[in-house]
Design brief:
Rossmann fold; 14% strand; six-stranded parallel sheet
Amino acid sequence: MLTQAAVLPNLKLLKQTGSIAEVLLITIEREAKPQSKLLPDELNNVKHIPIYSRNYSIPFLNKAYDFIVFPKLLLQVVKRQKVDAVLAHGAMAGALAFKVWENIKVPFYVSLFEPHAEYMLESGVWSKFSLKYNLQKRWQELQKKHASGVMPVANNYKQTLLAEGIAVEKIRVVPCVADNLAFAFDPEKRAEARKQLNWQSATIGVYVGKYGGLYYDDEAFEVYRKCFELIPDFRLLILSPQAKEEIQQQLQKHKIDPKKTYIASVPHGQVPDYLTASDFAFATYKPGPSKKYLSPVKIGEYWANGLPVLLTEGIGDESDIIKKEGGGALFNLSTPGSLENAIEKIKAIVQDPTHRQEIPKLALKYRSVEMLRKAYDYFFNQPHKEA
């Protein structure tokens, strides 16, 4: 789902960039064969080259293999295909692109550039002394120094990069874009979906995504439980790739009536229909100093559909946008009464008959595909400069 939401729009725009004659998509695969076709027909002129992991049973050996062998395989592809520039999607992929640059100095760029090591540390996934954390932090610094361009997803991170001495001409902010047309609110589909759910008169809150890691786990279900307490006829819709049984266990643990919830794992193309059926959305991220550098894909899609977002305070540029321009409400679980106040604000927004037309304007303003197009024009329609 993330590939479809975040990577495919990049490929479409790269094909439209005047100076680029051919686009290769290189993916790292964990399965022997992809379960389904990755690229839609409209991108059949993009060549997909998968690189396969060995998938050792010991995680450390698997990661060691990945970062010893993958750069060599990627280097072979770059040489064989006579690649002129490498665009890595994310700081972890940027580490592989850097290793290729070390060998043959092919210019590389990193989109979705974020302090991934800091995210994982603050979320409790990695420790400060772990090899993963220290390697990723080192690779991030090398990317800052040697990449021909970086595309952070938040203005907050751009300011930090500038303060660290990164040249302004190497930086273009590109948030995770949303397709406003694909995610547009549809009254007819709303009525149909709510009828199928038998929730015609309910106030529906929707969550799209996983639990744990960057996201709240137990705390998210406490947030849901509070919504059941404060919102009359509330219903919960969860779209998640996680095992349904795990989510059901959490519902039981937090004494949430399963009859008032609906859990599904659906293709990305079906997500807009479920958003259209809903009244507001959850973005329950774990807080932390580095989380102001995030740009959650889900928020752009929520906004494009006209949904107000119940969001953890201090997340991305979106936290400041909501404070200044609306589009949701912020909560801080460490502040008594904060969640309750945020839920009341969401209830007020849902009652406003214009919100479904006004909120998509935020997606157009802050998550437009034009921001990505301008960044690609800037980086790729000019001569390469070696970092």
